[in-house]
User: Which sequence fits this backbone?
């Protein structure tokens, strides 16, 4: 059986190691099926889980968090050199309070990245949505040594994990044939149609810093949350937390539960596109990020 535990009032911790390797698996089908079923249950019940055994080494996570900390420690004018207002595809730095959720300023600063792609030429007849593709903006190496390497390596590893989790979620929610696993359904034509949705999928990575809540320092704010209550619009969100925490998810009874940091884990939460694609079998849970 899959290793599964529960934190607080309902955020499970799932060992996803059985998802690694080729699909279909040889010799470990029972372990993989149990893992898929545990993920499907988390998708349907709370829309959040902690993933362990995911293959993204804790040293890689730590290097990424250090690189992020080094960037956010830069003076404001040096961070603004890569402001996303300079990018037609919205890549780059966003200062604290510039974005808002439900009309309330977001109390966080962040850098946004995507796949590293060549610029899109509007004169070539590109569709409007294709202008979300393009080159990233990176801080100068002398400002944050090793930043680009650390973030790019982390993004590659998380992309692989995301692909594994997507296969498992599709299988667990009844779309199995394209992935060689049969859990909850065997409609191969539906599975192939779903799989094609992910050809050239749009990926977005964010490196975020939230202010202290009621603490000292220039970035301390009185706001009760870093970002207000919302659901992510995409298919799947993977999140690495630091040791401070602050993330909360809303349960179906309307109460809020802490998604407390689990050392080495990756938090997985379902987005609105997954809820739509699964006809509501997976829930795109509301969540918020109180300031630390």
Assistant:
């Amino acid at each position: 059986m899959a290793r599964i535990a529960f934190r607080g009032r309902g955020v499970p911790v799932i060992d996803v190691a059985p998802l690694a390797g080729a699909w279909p698996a040889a010799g470990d089908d029972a372990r993989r099926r149990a893992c898929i079923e545990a993920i499907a249950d988390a998708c349907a019940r709370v829309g959040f889980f902690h993933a362990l055994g995911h293959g993204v080494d804790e040293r890689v996570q730590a290097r990424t968090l250090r690189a992020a900390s080094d960037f956010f420690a830069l003076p404001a004018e040096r961070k603004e050199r890569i402001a996303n207002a300079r990018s037609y595809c919205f890549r780059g730095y966003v200062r604290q309070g510039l974005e808002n959720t439900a009309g309330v300023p977001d109390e966080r600063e962040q850098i946004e990245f995507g796949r590293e792609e060549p610029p899109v030429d509007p004169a070539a007849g590109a569709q409007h949505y294709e202008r979300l593709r393009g080159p990233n903006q990176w801080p100068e190496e002398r400002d944050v040594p090793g930043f680009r390497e650390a973030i790019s390596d982390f993004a590659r590893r998380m992309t692989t994990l995301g692909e594994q989790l997507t296969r498992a979620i599709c299988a667990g929610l009844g779309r199995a044939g394209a992935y060689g696993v049969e859990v909850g359904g065997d409609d191969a034509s539906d599975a192939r149609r779903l799989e094609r949705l992910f050809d050239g999928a749009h990926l977005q990575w964010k490196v975020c810093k939230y202010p202290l809540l009621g603490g000292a320092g220039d970035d301390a704010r009185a706001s009760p949350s870093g970002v207000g209550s919302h659901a992510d619009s995409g298919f799947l969100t993977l999140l690495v937390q630091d040791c401070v925490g602050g993330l909360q998810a809303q349960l179906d009874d309307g109460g809020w539960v802490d998604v407390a940091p689990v050392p080495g884990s990756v938090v997985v939460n379902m987005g609105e596109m997954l809820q739509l694609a699964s006809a509501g079998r997976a829930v795109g849970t509301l969540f918020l990020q109180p300031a630390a």
The domain at 4-289 is CATH 2.60.120.330 (Jelly Rolls). Residues 15 and 52 are 5 Å apart (CA to CA). The longest strand covers residues 109-114.
